[in-house]
Write a structure and sequence with these properties.
The protein is mainly β. The chain has 1 helix and 11 strands; from the N terminus they run βββαββββββββ.
């Protein structure tokens, strides 16, 4: 099984920073999951893939909208996924969710397991 719990969301002014965390647990998460990602969804908009990371290689991929501002990372000892968000803008306001899948870490692929999400609000 896979349990994912996000934290770290909140309200910040434009130009500020936040770091999101996603604590993973469960046998499948620890021993099988090889792809993790962050997604976001703003009200009235479709869900957007933000960043993904392959556990075995550390390879990362980012959406063009966040390149150079956001950094995805993984602490395999703590079983925690992070998203460091810098230079935040109002258009980054959304519910951010982490997700995991067993294999095949390719941009645009469907993920198998999802967290509940954490809200990020950026004011101008």
């Amino acid at each position: 099984q896979v349990q994912l719990v996000e934290s770290g969301g909140g309200s910040v002014q434009a130009g500020g920073s936040l770091r999101l965390s996603c604590a993973g647990s469960g046998y499948t998460y620890i021993h099988i999951v090889n792809c993790l990602g962050w997604f976001r969804q703003a009200p009235g908009k479709e869900r957007e893939e933000v960043a993904i990371i392959t556990r075995s290689t550390g390879t990362t991929v980012y959406a063009d909208s966040v390149k150079g501002r956001f950094t995805i990372s993984l602490d395999n000892v703590k079983n925690t996924l992070y998203l460091q968000m810098n230079s935040l803008a109002p258009e980054d306001t959304a519910m951010y969710s982490c997700a995991a899948k067993r294999s095949g870490c390719y941009w645009g692929n469907e993920f198998d397991y999802w967290g509940q999400g954490t809200q990020v609000t950026v004011s101008s």
